[in-house]
Amino acid sequence: METYVTEILFGGFLALMLLGAPITVSLAGAAMAAFLILEKNPIAFVQIAFTSVGSFPLMALPAFVLAGAMMEAAGISKRLVDIAETLAGPITGGLGAATVLACLFFGAISGSGPATTAAVGMLMIPAMTKRKYERPYASAVTAASGGLGIIIPPSIPMVIFGISAMGIAPSAESIAKFGQFETLSIPKLFMAGVVPGLLMASGLLAANYIISRKRGYRGLTENWSFGEIGQAVRRGVWSVLAPVIILGGIYTGLFTPTESAIIAIFYTLFVGVFLHRELKFDAILKSLRTTTWITGRVLMILFAATVFGRLLVEQRIPAEVAGALLSLTDNMYLIWTIVIVFLLFVGMFMETLAAIMILVPVLMPVMYTLGADPTHVGIVVICALSVGFMTPPLGENLFVASGIGGASVEQIVGRVYPFVLASTFAIFVIAFVPTLSLWLPRLLGY
User: Fold this and answer.
1) Are 136 and 226 in contact (CB under 8 A)?
2) Exposure pattern of 204-229 as b/e (b: 16+ CB <10 Å)?
3) What is the pTM of this model?
4) What CA–CA distance (Å, rounded) separates 232 from 226?
C-alpha cells in the first residue's frame, strides 16, 4: 500500500481543490486519507498539527498582522503615502511611482501583500483616477506593488519559511562536498530581503515609467519641492520611525522578530492615540477582529500543511525529486530556472503561505545538494511567490484592487502583465546573483 501514498497525497489534494474545497480541507483530507492507508493512529495527525504552532517565532504572525491593521487606522499609512507622493515629484507617471514607493514603505510595516494593497490602494487609486490615469491601470500598478509587502521585511512569509526550513538539515554528503552551510534564521531572512525588495521595486518603477511615458501620464509637479518634501517628512516622522525602530532593533540584536512585533503594536498605540490622535477604540476592535480572522486562517493551513509535509518526508519524496532533477542537470542556473518557473506557476493557483509550507520540505534538500545557501533560497522562493499576488486565477491583490478601484479583474489583468515581466526579470537576477541577498546579512555579521 505504501507505494500508493504519493498518489493519494497529491491526487487527493488536487481532486479536492478541483471540487472547490478550501486549501486547508484539501491538505487535511489528502493527509488523513494517507494516514488511514498507512494504518497510522489518527491521533498522531492531531498531535503533529498541534505541535506545528508551538514555536516561539510563530507568535510574530498575529502580532505583525495586528500592528499592520492598527497602523492603517492610526494614520501612519496615509502619512507614508504623502511622503511617497512628494518624493515622486515631476517623474513621469509620478503617482504610479508614488504608489510603488508607498507600498515599499508600508511593506516595511505590514508584512502582507493584500494588506499593503488595501492600505495604499484606498488612497492612491482614487488619486490616480483624478489625475486622468486609466482606472484599470491605476488598479494594476497598485496590485503589482502590493506584492512588495512580503519581500520588504518584516514579512509574514519569511517567518513561515524560517519555521518550515529550520527543521531541514543538509545531508552528510552535501556537507562533505560543500562544507558547513551557513545557518538560517528569521532575522537573517529579514536582512536578506532588503536589497532584493529594492530591486523588485526598481523593476516596477521602470515598467511604470515606460508605460506612463507612452500613455502621457505626467508627474505631479514641474519640479521637486524640497520644502514640501520636508513638510511631508515632518508630518510623517513618526510613521517613518516605525520601520526604523522595528528593523533597527532586530538588526542590532536588541530584540527578536517576535519581540519586535509586540513593540510595533505598542508603538502604534502610542503614536495613534497620543501623537496622531486618530486611533479610536472602534478601530482597535476592528483591527483585533481582522487579526483573529487572518491568523486563524493561516494557522489552520499550517496545521494541515505540517502533516502533509511530514508525510512527504517520510515517503522520501523530496529525495526522489532531488534525484530526478539532478539526473537531468547539475547546472545551477538551469535548476534555478526550473524552480522559478515552477514557483511562478504554483503562485497562480496556491496561497503563498500554503505553497511555502508544502514546497519547502521538497525544495530544500534539492538546493542543499547543489550547495545553495538556505537564506538565498528563501528570498528567491518568496520573491517568486510574490508574483502570484498579481496573476490569475488566485491573484489576491487583483481582487483587492478591483474592489477598491471599481475596475473589473479582467481589465486589471490586461494591464498587469508588464509588471509581471519586470518582476520575473528581477527574480532571475536575484537567483543568479546570490550576493544581492547575502551581502547585507554578512555585512552585519550574520
Assistant:
1) no
2) bbebbbebbeeeebbbbeeebeeebe
3) 0.82
4) 10
